[in-house]
Amino acid sequence: MKPSNRIENITNGGSDGWEIFYKARKMMASGINVIELSIGEHDIGTDPAILKSMHKAAINGQTGYAPVPGLEELRALIAYRTEKKTGIKTTLENVIVTPGGQSALFAAHMAILDEGDTAAYIDPYYATYPTTIRSIGARERRIITSAENYFQPTFDQLDSATQKTKSLLINSPNNPTSMVYNKATIKNICDVAKKNNLWVISDEVYHTQIWAGKHISPREIDNMVERTLVIGSLSKSHAMTGSRLGWLIGPEIIISKAIDLATNMTYGVPGFVQQAGIFALEQGKKFEEKISEPFNRRSKLALDILKDFPCLGHIPPQGTMYLMLNIRATGMSGLSFAGKLLDVEKIAVMPGESFGEAASGHVRISLTLEDNKFAETFRSICKFASDLSL
Ligand code: PLP
Fold first, then answer.
1. pTM, whole model, 2 decimals?
2. Which residues pair with 247 in a beta bridge?
3. Which of 201, 278, 292, 311 would be a feasible disulfide site paired with 209, CB 3.0-4.6 Å?
4. Which CATH superfamily is domain 5-45+286-388 in?
């Protein structure tokens, strides 16, 4: 007996880009003290007040099946916030609550692509994009950007890659590059989507973490609402990664199909988690700034330290919880550099190649350590890279 071809095809028998992460976890389990800067996990836990509201909801009985599309109050709140931010009419029928943004990414592709259709995404990309596309039986098409253009796709790159594709997945603020797509890039994306009749899936899970520029959702651009699906999540904005609470926003017809999918797969999100999500969203902007501010501070610390290492390059951080360090001066790939850094310095970072070929010769560093410890670790990484440079 053997697994299906479709499920075999998810990783295609090859690497899934997480080798360094798994190796670091193994070392930690064997008692080695590894400094972990490879994943997007806050250095703080979920706020105790959010946990209290989760506990209260559970004790008060929200432990049975919750409505599959999500609690109406939560869907309405997400819709209200979206409409307020974008000016685009959004009702609860445009929202389904999902177990995290990842599940929304899966549902979005599943709802708009048939088997064998081609789905585009931009390289560098979040590690699960190609595997999500493959897991629903679609074919992937990468749009490879360049470090010189700070990894923002150009009109020509977008247009030529999407002649025969049905969807285009974008992510701004971007993991791993930390870039926030500017007005011109969003315009290019929307113009190409209309020209080539594409769905746009806009992954906006980092929208509260912006230090430069302004977040623009393609859904708010003229004539885009009917072809745009938005991915949201409380994982990053509210330090709730383990609660698995996200959502998909889109045209009613797509959301109703995503509800059919959820009925047959997740059967919704626990009611007590959703209740805590309502509480979290009600804390407003101040709370979101409290969660995001440390990453802004640490990205500035990193920029200061980089002044002492002129041989190293970087992508100027505009948002998210990451920084992309260019280590091409070492002559090493991101993968071999990250492997050596882990072996010698016991520091785990993500190789750029885990996010596609455009990010080769880079490593992504998570800004997820207390400030002093972060500064000390970041300096060690820079010194290590600088000593290896030719
Ligand atoms: N999208 C991006 C760009 C991410 O970086 C992540 C997680 O790191 C996700 C989606 C999925 O987040 P979650 O499923 O925790 O909401």
1. 0.96
2. 97, 232
3. 292
4. Aspartate Aminotransferase, domain 1 (3.90.1150.10)
